[in-house]
Structures are given as C-alpha cells and as structure tokens.
Amino acid sequence: MFSLRKYNTFGIEAAASQFVEISSVEEYVSLRHKGDYSNLPHLFLGGGSNVLLTKNQDALVVKISIPGISIVQEDADFVWVKGGAGVVWDEFVQFTVDRAWSGLENLSLIPGTVGAAPMQNIGAYGVEIKDTFESLEALNLKTLEIEVFDAKACAFGYRESFFKRAGKGQYLISSVTFKLAKKPSVKTSYGAIQEVLAAKGISQPSIREVADAVIEIRQSKLPDPKQIGNSGSFFKNPTVSASEAARLISENSGIPHYPVEGSSDVKFPAGWFIEKAGWKGFRRGDAGVHAKQALVLVNYGEAKGEEILALSEEIKKSILDTFGVVLETEVNIL
C-alpha cells in the first residue's frame, strides 16, 4: 500500500493499492500496453486539491505531472498559451501575468494543476476558466487516442464540465490552451478587489496589480494547505429561482446575492448561510470549519476523511433546516 497523505491538500491519511507518477501521455499509454496494473481501476490525481479521501483506494493512483508551458500562436491582440496538465495552476497564471497577458489574473493563487482546472471550470472574483479557454487535449482511456475538445464540447457550467458528468472517468487531460489578451482588460468589480486597490491608491490597475490584490485577499481569508489541511471551498454557492431568491431576501435582511448571467436565477454565497447557522470556527476533534472563511472545511492534523464528510453532511442538513437551501459539495468525495 502507498500513502497518499502528501498527495492531497486535506492531508488525509489514506493509501492506494498501487501508485505511479507520469510526466507524459506516452508513459501512461506504455503502461497500458504492457498490461501492468490491468486488474485495478485507475484513479488520476493532479494537485489533490479538490478531493476528500474517505477510505483507502483499491486502485492504481496515477499522479499526473505532465510539464511545460508554451506559446502556441500569437497575433497583435492575443496570445494562445498551452500548459501541461501537471503544471501548478498558480505558476501558470503568474507566467501569464508576468508577461501582461490578460485573462487569468483573477484566478491567482487557486490551488491545483492546469489539467484539473477545466474539469471544475474553476472560477473566482467574477472570472471562470471558460472565459479564456481555447481547447484541451485529452487521452481517451478506451481507444488510447488523443482527442481535442473546444469550449462547446467541454460543456462548462458552474464548477462543472463534461469531464465531471458524461465524460467522468473516460479521459486523461494532458494539456490546456488559453486565449489571452495582450491589451489589458481587467475585472475589478467583484468581491473585495476594488477595496484593496483603493486602499493602495490605485485607480487604473495593471494586470499585475489586480493579481497581487487577489493574492492578498485570498491569503487573508483562506488557510494555506501547507499549514492547515483543506481543499478550498468545500461547497458550491447555491443558485435559486427568482421566486426562491425573493423569499430568502425578505426573510434575511442584508443577505448578499448576485444575478446569474443570462438567467433570472440568483446566486447566494454558501459561506454566508454556514456562518449565520453558527458553524464558522466550529471544531470537533481535528475536523472543523475555518475560523475566517466558513466555506472552507479543515483538517487540523489527524482528521479522517469520513469525519470531515460527516461534518459536511451535518452542515448541509443544518442549512436546509434553517434556510430551506440545498448546498451542493464542490469537492470530489473518494
């Protein structure tokens, strides 16, 4: 058995039957052709930043460490940048920010890898992957052929994609390409970005200044997984119908809410409900809710995955009973 503790940001102690790390698709294809580990299911891990391990994995865990950042093409207005699936996401973002290419700066400091980013359609501060996504390459695990997916084929939704639904477990994403603007077009209206910039006396921020503001905000609110085990936002922000939103707003004075683009639905911050229900800072043993951000469940040291899962279920029931709102888990439970 192989310990997975250092391969998941929750720091959960769980083991895999077998483990292998690959730096290319060819390595994995070679593995398959040899018939090695054919009696085991294969579980793919990137940065391990969006999983909760609740048990030992009777599987071959494949750690994807495909490297490389390259410019695919560019013109006067845009540059197309490709990242290997194993590249650390924030390293990729900072590579683009350093060159003043606009589009990913609001996604600074999100944990994980490039390959995992489109699976979740990761997003923060008014920006999602789908906004700048061009295409990705993925290995079909049945045919062992590379396929190319554009944005439509990825079927992006809120923290969702084809790879979390119909295509789940059928592909190994090997690289992702983004189309970024050479002429700065920053987004600063969402969250606390504007406040941080104003406090610094910045009225017309550069891409780097926006990225630095996002990093400052995230560091002030979110625990560093190297210090306290966590997987970032554990729950999705709930989206409800206009009529349900009207009820929530009338019953809860000052509740924050945001319109959903292209819809009459309304989105509410899950952390607000969790905090109002009294869970912020809650701790049972080594499983808890972070003291500064109620959306983040944490492992203070030796919590088991099933203990954190049980806590999450208690929170979901509490929010349903108190507010009539259903919370959905963002983290993948394994």
Fold and architecture overview:
Residues 12-183 form the FAD-binding PCMH-type domain. GO terms for molecular function: UDP-N-acetylmuramate dehydrogenase activity. InterPro entries: FAD-bd_PCMH, FAD-bd_PCMH-like_sf, FAD-bd_PCMH_sub1, FAD-bd_PCMH_sub2, MurB, MurB_C, MurB_C_sf, Oxid_FAD_bind_N. Pfam families: FAD_binding_4, MurB_C. This is UDP-N-acetylenolpyruvoylglucosamine reductase. The protein has 334 residues and is an alpha+beta fold. It has three domains: 2-64, 2-Layer Sandwich (Uridine Diphospho-n-acetylenolpyruvylglucosamine Reductase, domain 2); 69-181, Uridine Diphospho-n-acetylenolpyruvylglucosamine Reductase, domain 3, CATH 3.30.465.10; 229-333, Uridine Diphospho-n-acetylenolpyruvylglucosamine Reductase, domain 1. Helices cover 25% and strands 26% of the residues. The strands form six sheets. Strands 6-7-12-10-11 form a five-stranded antiparallel sheet. Strands 1-2-5-3 form a four-stranded mixed sheet. The protein is globular. The mean pLDDT is 93.
Q: Span between N and C termini? A: 17 Å
The largest pleated sheet is described as: 5 strands, antiparallel
Topology, number of strands: 20
Question: Strand portion, in percent?
Answer: 25-35%
Q: Runs with pLDDT <50, length 5+?
A: none
Structural class category: alpha+beta
Helix content: 25-40%
Mean pLDDT: 93
Strands of the largest sheet, in order across it? 6-7-12-10-11
Order of helices and strands: EEHEEEEEHHEEEEHEHHEEHEEHEEEHE
Number of H/I helices: 9
At CATH level 2, the architecture of the largest domain is 2-Layer Sandwich
CATH class of the largest domain: Alpha Beta
Oligomer: single chain
Coarse shape? globular
Radius of gyration, in angstroms, nearest whole number: 20 Å
The figure for the number of domains is 3
Say what the CATH topology of the largest domain is.
Answer: Uridine Diphospho-n-acetylenolpyruvylglucosamine Reductase, domain 3
